[in-house]
Design a protein that fits this description.
Layout lengths: L1 H47 L9 E3 L2 E5 L3 E10 L1 E3 L3 E8 L2 E8 L2 E4 L2 E3 L1 E3 L3 E6 L3 H6 L8 E4 L5 E12 L7 E2 L4 E6 L2 E9 L5 E2 L5 E7 L6 E3 L4 E6 L2 E13 L5 E5 L17 E4 L2 E3 L1 H4 L4 E3 L3 E4 L5 E6 L7 E3 L6 E3 L6 E11 L8 E11 L1
Length: 372
């Protein structure tokens, strides 16, 4: 009886060790594959493209409007580089079945309701240029998502892009593979596209990042992309993952057109009117008996008035409590579940996009929240 018990114990130990070995192999194999894909992605990105943040200006137009007799103002957030009044730029836009590069001179810059001489990475600003945009914009050729970049920037419209696809942890069932149709979102614009190659079997949610994935068959014949760029892959309201661009296949030169500057009209100011946005924050309270069990949303913490254009809200990390967050669209403050009693604060940047009469503006306020 004693020997039989010992044999059963040995079998149990063997089974447990075997299971532990299988799990560890699966875990480390996935970890190794993930790291290898990321390392290869980083290496090839570095080899194929010099860091653009040091010299090449880039901004995707979030909005644009015409000032009659003056030109066009593009507004958006500077993704990289520095731009000064008088600099040469090129604006890449898709129209009439091909990509067109407009080569222009910056006539004016504005930020925080003031005309300035320079903008840089992270700034929300307006850029004024003259001909031919005034006439072209009226025809509906220029639109949200046009790419504004430095005149010497190597970024061009690409027929296909190759890189690393990093699927979401969960959110879709089954796998996606070659021929999968989706939307590639980048720079305030959606491009319908297809996965032309997934470098192996189908990709499921939670899989390790897959190197060697190819995107193509873009809605506009191509996409203005660069190595290191991140593209969100979405379809029917679902996010499938993030595509990290490594290499690009530039569209043939004959499918693009270059339009150079012809106007000699002097333009000195971006707009006649400054955005009159007013933002006020007030102290608010959250109930401990609520946040003890679930999050609490506070809707009256920030009041915005006299704002022109779309208003958005963004949490400023410095000076803000990690227990608080702000809704980008509504400005409502959320107190996280299990927040303890005490005083908290969140710094919020409020951005008004402007319109055809008023330029963008930003205000920053601090909301104080007391949990009791």
């Amino acid at each position: 009886m004693k020997n039989q018990s010992m044999n059963m114990l040995k079998r149990g130990i063997c089974v447990a060790l075997s299971f532990a070995l299988i799990v560890s192999v699966m875990f480390f194999a996935d970890y190794t594959d993930t790291n290898a894909a990321k390392e290869q992605f980083q290496t090839e990105t570095d080899e194929n493209y010099e860091n653009p943040n040091t010299k090449n200006f880039l901004l995707y137009a979030e909005d644009m409007f015409v000032i009659t007799g003056r030109g066009v103002v593009f507004t958006g957030r500077v993704l990289q580089g520095v731009l000064k009044v008088g600099d040469k730029i090129k604006v890449t836009n898709y129209e009439n079945g091909k990509y067109v590069d407009y080569e222009m001179t910056v006539e004016g810059l504005e930020m925080f309701q003031k005309s300035i001489d320079q903008i840089e990475s992270g700034d929300n600003a307006g850029i004024l240029v003259g001909w031919p945009f005034g006439e072209e914009a009226k025809k509906g050729n220029l639109e949200r998502g046009a790419v504004i970049q430095g005149i010497d920037s190597p970024i061009k419209a690409s027929k296909t892009v190759t890189g690393v696809f990093e699927p979401v942890e969960s959110g879709y069932s089954g796998t996606i593979g070659k021929g999968f149709e989706a939307n590639a979102y980048s720079g305030y614009k959606d491009y319908s596209c297809k996965l032309l190659d997934v470098n192996g079997s189908g990709i499921a949610a939670g899989d390790a990042p897959r190197y060697g994935v190819v995107l193509g068959d873009f809605q506009y014949g191509g996409i203005v992309a660069y190595p290191g760029m991140e593209i969100s892959i979405r379809k029917e309201g679902k996010v499938y993952g993030t595509f990290h661009v490594v290499t690009t296949e530039i569209i043939e030169e004959e499918t693009t057109e270059i339009v150079t500057e012809k106007s000699t009209e002097k333009v000195t100011n971006v707009a006649k009117k400054a955005n009159t946005i007013t933002v006020k924050a007030k102290k608010v309270k959250a109930k401990f008996k609520i946040v003890k069990k679930k999050k609490q949303v506070i809707s009256n913490a920030i009041k915005v008035s006299n704002a022109f254009g779309k208003v958005t809200y963004k949490k400023v990390s410095k000076g803000s409590s990690p227990r608080l967050s702000v809704n980008k669209k509504t400005g409502k403050i959320t107190v996280k579940k299990k927040t303890k009693k005490g005083n908290y604060k969140i710094v919020v940047k409020v951005y008004a996009a402007g319109n055809n009469e008023y330029l963008p503006a930003t205000k920053t306020v601090t909301v104080k929240v007391k949990v009791k």
